[in-house]
Specification:
The chain is α+β, with helices and mostly antiparallel strands. It is 23% helix and 40% strand. A nine-stranded mixed sheet has the order 3-1-2-4-5-6-7-8-9. Helix 1 (66-74) runs antiparallel to helix 2.
C-alpha cells in the first residue's frame, strides 16, 4: 500500500498521559561532542566532552522529544564553549517546553606541571565536569566537579614499621557550587596542596627522591585528606557549597578507603 505523504505523522511523545506522575529527569546520556575550554594562561583547550542532558517532564505529557537534545548540541558553533553553557541550557528548557533542566559536561583537562627538582615539564590530565541546572522559576545554578589524583601515605604504617610506609594513589573529588568564577587550575592546586604529595606526568631521579620523601614527611589518612581539603574550601569565598570525597586505592588491601564531607556554606 503506498504511503500517503500528505498524512501527518503522529507526535506520540506530545500526547497526554493520564497517570498524573511527573518525571524529575528525562533525556539522553553519554553523547560525545567537541568543546573548547579557556585555561588560566590565556590559551584554549579543544577536547571532547561526554554530555548528559535532562529536563523535567510535567505529569500531563507522555514523553519528551529526544531528538531535540541532539539538535541543541549541534546548532550554532561546532564546538561548545564554557560561555555558551548556560545559554545552551536555557535554550534546551525552552525548546522542550520544560520548567527545569540539567546538563552535565565531562571532559579531560590538561595542566602543564613542572617536576619539583629538575623542573622538567609534562602534562597531567584531570577529569572535570561542569554541571548546570535550571530550577523552578528559571534560577540557574552552576557546579564544577574535579577528580584530582594524588599520593597518600599511611600514618599508621609509618608509625608501626621499622622502615618505610605503604602509600597509594588516591582520587580526591570535589563538587563545588560556584558563586563567582574560579579557574580549574586554582581548584586543582588547592586540593593537591593538601595531599601527602602531588602526582606528576614525568619525573627524573632527583624528582622521584623528592616526592618519595615528601610523601613520607606528610602522612595522611583518608579522613585527614577530606578534612584538610574541606578546610581550604571553607575559606574560599567563591564557593557556596561543596562535596569533597577521597578514595584511597589501598596498596596492601584489595579494597579502597573512602571518606566524604558535604557542606552548605
Amino acid at each position: 500500500m503506498p504511503i500517503d505523504h500528505a498524512d501527518p505523522i503522529p507526535d506520540v511523545q506530545n500526547s497526554a498521559d493520564a497517570r498524573r506522575i511527573a518525571i524529575d529527569k528525562v533525556g539522553i546520556k553519554a553523547i560525545r561532542h567537541p568543546i573548547k575550554v579557556k585555561d588560566r594562561d590565556g590559551g584554549v583547550q579543544h577536547t571532547v566532552a561526554m554530555f548528559n542532558m535532562y529536563v523535567g517532564l510535567p505529569h500531563n505529557f507522555k514523553g519528551t522529544h529526544m531528538s531535540r537534545f541532539v539538535e541543541i548540541l549541534n546548532q550554532g558553533e561546532r564546538e561548545i564553549s564554557v560561555e555558551s553553557f548556560e545559554p545552551m541550557l536555557r535554550d534546551m528548557v525552552e525548546r522542550l517546553e520544560a520548567e527545569t533542566g540539567h546538563v552535565e559536561m565531562t571532559f579531560p583537562y590538561f595542566i602543564n606541571k613542572a617536576a619539583p627538582i629538575s623542573g622538567v615539564s609534562s602534562l597531567m590530565d584531570y577529569e572535570v565536569t561542569f554541571i548546570g541546572e535550571i530550577a523552578d522559576g528559571g534560577h540557574y545554578r552552576f557546579q564544577m566537579k574535579i577528580v584530582v589524583p594524588v599520593t597518600s601515605l599511611c600514618p599508621c604504617s609509618k608509625k608501626i614499621s621499622d622502615y618505610g610506609a605503604h602509600n597509594q594513589r588516591s582520587h580526591v573529588t570535589v563538587t563545588a557550587r560556584l558563586e563567582e568564577h574560579l579557574w580549574i587550575e586554582e581548584l586543582v592546586e588547592q586540593v593537591e596542596a593538601q595531599a601527602s604529595c602531588q602526582l606528576y606526568g614525568l619525573l627524573k631521579r632527583p624528582d622521584e627522591k623528592y616526592v618519595t620523601e615528601h610523601a613520607y614527611d606528610n602522612p595522611k589518612f583518608v579522613e585527614d585528606m577530606v578534612r584538610d581539603v574541606a578546610g581550604v574550601l571553607d575559606a574560599e569565598p567563591r564557593i557556596g557549597a561543596y562535596v569533597v570525597e577521597s578514595e584511597n586505592f589501598e596498596s596492601i588491601h584489595n579494597h579502597s578507603a573512602y571518606a566524604l564531607i558535604e557542606r552548605q556554606k
